[in-house]
């Protein structure tokens, strides 16, 4: 590791400290408006389109699209790496009456049928239109008719993309060097604490605090409304940290019993707070705050933090009451401060950084019953951080911290971390990596799933091996075989040894204790009850193989509850055994394999139904298109072409930014392309089954009850619409189609208190009402499914399975095969995380 420190106050110029990537972009930066001007000038002189040098790349600036009519304007188009920027000419083209389109768009329009005979001048051409497409003079111009959202393009729209997935698989697996050049600006540190000067009460007496202790008191007030304030271990660790920040002559430390910690009687103090007329938040805080009125109170119990809590609540409420503009301004300010640290330059390509902020100080919470919860996490400084940079990359300055410098600078191209420091609580290394959508993370995910795919060629051999070992006379082989069977059959984690004084007591397969299993000899069922990763409880009663059950009975015989079931093996020996069966195999690969193969098998069960439905949809679509095509007139085609040309020439919408200029309209194709409209609840139920298999659980979200209440209110609104439509249908039948005299009284109001709007429209006939009822019925069924899924999945973490265990190519291939919208299955974060999976063919098989 090479020492390469740079402190503030150096004599280097701004140009010397400029990052190499910034120098490169600074020399070749071309504004879109300037590029359009250059291109337009070249076109006016009859020359070739101008070429702009940009580093190692040459960007072709396309000719400006000219619009001519009674008022002649010009729109500009700047293309970089095949991507069009029409924002410069969008505003000018909004008043154009005719559009002259060159290049690929003109070629597309040349296919439009016309009634012009040979030798005749088209009417539109005589009026000054270059395309020869006519439009009635009374009709409004399509240019600017649609209201478009303002969209500003940035460097992200023009920079190249790393398509690493197009490389050979063996090249990725054998790639020891991860990068050739790496540059970034380090990380952001927590700002220094600004004291507010509000003290506390100790035995009823006002006590001031030094800034260090005041900050710790703020941390304590931040958890008063959580369950941590009721945990003795958390309170003891906090009180010890708080006392360490007080000087020796402080009033609290003068009390001989200042170290005493005793939780407060929350019922008595809570009742007193409620009687005082305080709100629920303040009442909860007072209930947990120590009572100073008792004469025998001492130590933690004698402290009253209510004034600090009230001050923090006031600040929190003031922040909530900010206007929308003020909140947006604060967000913009934070984004601007974080912008220099948000990206890294990897092999001259910009990649997003995952988390560029060092952990702020606070009270450690941990997961589950962590023995160190409540301890103080100290503030991280640049002296704690080691950066990883390219040897020729400039070393960034420590941000806004005069007198500080980095601990060290590394130049290790074999690793993917950007920086690291050590946690002050557990002495664990905290790394700063690139974001989930980066090339580094994408390659790791891709290789992980490829290894899991390779396991299917060995899984039969592996299962034969562990069934054979379960019947072996060697106790070591029996434990290896039984543990492998449980990991494969139940998708258990392998488990490792832990120091319960330093970490939470979580276990896996190899670290199971006798107290974690209950054996039923009559049914050969085993009940597992233990805390898994992140202190998530695993509780499962399952019938297992008879030989595996006999082995578990033998392993537990004569042992105490706190002794290990598998006392002859550990995670290391088990993984070494698995590597002998398949190169690179580890126990955790079984979870990925079983999750992915289960998803694929369950999706295949849906194929007959979906295939039949798809055929019906396509047949109906073809019938509709044949009718529409027969009714089309030449004039309608011409008007449609004019509208499309104008929309393409003036588009500034984000939705159309990737549409090639040779295409007529992506949105138009969406309207005529048959999309399989099926309920995706079945797909999500399969994801739920995989999540349950892998024990991906979560606590019930705090907003679950409110969300369900909102969905229930929406269901009532749908049912009210249905009642009105059915009543109107009966009215039409009784009055022979006459809508006169129909009245429907409804007391239903929206969540905002607004009266309900009627779904019955003027002039609705009985056929339209019947069709509308069918639509609302379908909407109701979809809403009921949505409510059921939301309630069923309130304790299931579906995202964990999608992110870490299920090969995304399985889902993408399924969606492509049956034209399901991938947005319904993968949210935006997952689509950004798995760009390589979006190129999977529709016939992909795991």
TrEMBL record:
Occurrences of domain DNA topoisomerase I eukaryotic-type (ranges): 363-819
Domain of life of the native organism: Eukaryota
GO MF annotations in UniProt: DNA binding; DNA topoisomerase type I (single strand cut, ATP-independent) activity
Compositionally biased spans, kind Polar residues: 131-140
Residues of the active site: 805
Start and end residues of each stretch annotated as Disordered: 1-20, 65-92, 123-150
Catalysis: reaction(s): ATP-independent breakage of single-stranded DNA, followed by passage and rejoining
UniProt keyword annotations, A-Z: Coiled coil, DNA-binding, Isomerase, Topoisomerase
Family annotation (InterPro entries): DNA_brk_join_enz, DNA_topo_DNA_db_N_dom1, DNA_topo_DNA_db_N_dom2, TopoI, TopoI_C_dom, TopoI_cat_a-hlx-sub_euk, TopoI_cat_a/b-sub_euk, TopoI_cat_euk
A Gene Ontology term for the protein's cellular component: chromosome
Coiled coil start-end: 305-339, 708-735
EC number: 5.6.2.1
Biased composition (Low complexity): 66-80
Single GO biological process annotation from the record: chromosome segregation
Group of enzyme by EC: isomerase
Similarity comment: Belongs to the type IB topoisomerase family.
Protein's UniProt name: DNA topoisomerase 1
Organism: Cyclospora cayetanensis
């Amino acid at each position: 590791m090479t020492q390469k420190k740079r402190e503030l106050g150096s004599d280097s110029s701004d140009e010397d400290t400029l990052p190499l990537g910034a120098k490169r972009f600074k020399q070749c930066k071309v504004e879109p408006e300037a590029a359009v001007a250059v291109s337009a000038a070249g076109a006016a002189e009859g020359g070739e389109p101008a070429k702009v040098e940009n580093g190692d790349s040459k960007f072709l600036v396309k000719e400006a699209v000219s619009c001519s009519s009674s008022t002649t304007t010009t729109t500009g188009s700047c293309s970089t790496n095949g991507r069009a920027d029409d924002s410069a000419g969008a505003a000018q083209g909004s008043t154009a009456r005719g559009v002259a389109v060159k290049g690929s768009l003109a070629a597309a329009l040349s296919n439009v049928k016309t009634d012009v005979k040979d030798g005749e001048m088209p009417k539109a051409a005589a009026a000054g239109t270059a395309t020869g497409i006519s439009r009635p003079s009374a009709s409004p111009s399509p240019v600017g008719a649609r209201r478009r959202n303002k969209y500003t393009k940035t460097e992200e729209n023009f920079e190249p993309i790393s398509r690493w997935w197009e490389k050979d698989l063996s090249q990725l697996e054998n790639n020891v060097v991860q990068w050739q050049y790496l540059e970034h600006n380090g990380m952001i540190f927590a700002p220094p604490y600004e004291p507010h000067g509000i003290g506390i009460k100790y035995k009823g007496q006002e006590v001031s605090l030094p800034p260090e202790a005041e900050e710790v008191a703020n941390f304590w007030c931040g958890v008063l409304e959580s369950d941590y304030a009721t945990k003795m271990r958390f309170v003891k660790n906090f009180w010890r940290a708080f006392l360490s920040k007080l000087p020796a002559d402080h009033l609290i430390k003068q009390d001989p019993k200042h170290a005493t910690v005793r939780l407060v009687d929350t019922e008595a103090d809570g009742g007193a707070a409620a009687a005082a007329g305080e709100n629920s938040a303040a009442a909860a805080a007072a209930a947990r705050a120590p009572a100073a009125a008792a004469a025998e109170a001492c130590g933690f119990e004698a402290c009253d933090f209510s004034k600090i809590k009230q001050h923090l609540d006031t600040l929190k409420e003031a922040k909530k009451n900010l206007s929308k503009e003020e909140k947006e301004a604060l967000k913009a300010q934070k984004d601007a401060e974080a912008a220099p640290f948000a990206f890294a330059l990897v092999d001259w390509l910009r990649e997003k950084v995952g988390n560029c902020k060092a952990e702020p100080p606070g009270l450690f919470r941990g997961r589950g019953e962590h023995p160190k919860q409540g301890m103080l996490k100290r503030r991280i400084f640049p002296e704690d951080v080691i950066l990883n940079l390219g040897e020729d990359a400039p070393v960034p300055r420590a941000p806004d911290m005069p007198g500080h410098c980095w601990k060290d600078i590394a130049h290790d191209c074999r690793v993917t971390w950007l920086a690291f420091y050590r946690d002050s609580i557990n002495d664990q290394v905290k790394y700063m990596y690139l974001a989930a959508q980066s090339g580094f993370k994408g390659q790791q995910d891709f290789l992980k799933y490829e290894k899991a795919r390779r396991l299917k060629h060995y899984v039969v051999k592996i299962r034969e091996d562990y069934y054979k070992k379960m019947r072996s006379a060697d106790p070591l082989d029996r434990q290896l075989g039984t543990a492998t069977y449980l990991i494969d059959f139940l998708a258990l984690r392998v488990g490792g040894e832990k120091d319960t004084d330093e970490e939470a007591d979580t276990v896996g397969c190899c670290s199971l204790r006798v107290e974690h299993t209950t054996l039923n000899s009559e049914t050969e069922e085993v009940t597992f009850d233990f805390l898994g990763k992140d202190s998530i409880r695993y509780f499962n009663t399952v019938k297992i193989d008879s030989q595996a059950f006999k082995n578990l009975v033998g392993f537990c015989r004569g042992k105490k509850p706190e002794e290990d079931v598998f006392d002859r093996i550990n995670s290391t020996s088990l993984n070494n055994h698995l590597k002998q069966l398949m190169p690179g195999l580890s126990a955790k690969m079984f979870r990925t394999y079983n999750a992915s193969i289960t998803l694929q098998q369950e999706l295949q069960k849906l194929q007959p139904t979906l295939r039949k439905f798809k055929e019906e949809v396509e047949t109906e679509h073809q019938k509709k298109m044949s009718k529409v095509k027969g009714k089309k007139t030449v004039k309608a085609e011409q008007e449609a072409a004019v509208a499309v040309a104008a929309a393409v020439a003036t588009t500034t919408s984000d939705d159309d930014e990737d549409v090639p200029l040779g295409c007529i309209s992506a949105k138009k194709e969406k309207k005529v392309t048959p999309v399989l409209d099926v309920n995706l609840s079945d797909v999500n139920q399969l994801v739920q089954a995989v999540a349950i298999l892998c024990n991906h659980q979560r606590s019930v979200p705090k907003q679950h009850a409110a969300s369900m209440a909102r969905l229930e209110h929406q269901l009532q609104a749908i049912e009210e619409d249905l009642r009105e439509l059915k009543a109107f249908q009966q009215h039409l039948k009784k009055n022979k189609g006459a809508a006169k005299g129909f009245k429907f009284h409804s007391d239903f109001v929206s969540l905002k208190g607004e009266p309900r709007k009627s779904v019955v429209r003027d002039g609705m006939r009985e056929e339209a009402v019947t069709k509308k009822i069918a639509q609302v019925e379908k909407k109701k069924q979809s809403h009921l499914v949505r409510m059921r899924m939301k309630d069923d999945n309130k304790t299931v973490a579906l995202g964990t399975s999608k992110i870490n265990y299920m090969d995304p190519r399985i889902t993408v291939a399924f969606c492509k095969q049956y034209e399901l919208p991938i947005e319904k299955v993968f949210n935006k974060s997952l689509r950004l995380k798995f760009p390589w999976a979006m190129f999977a063919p529709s016939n992909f098989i795991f």
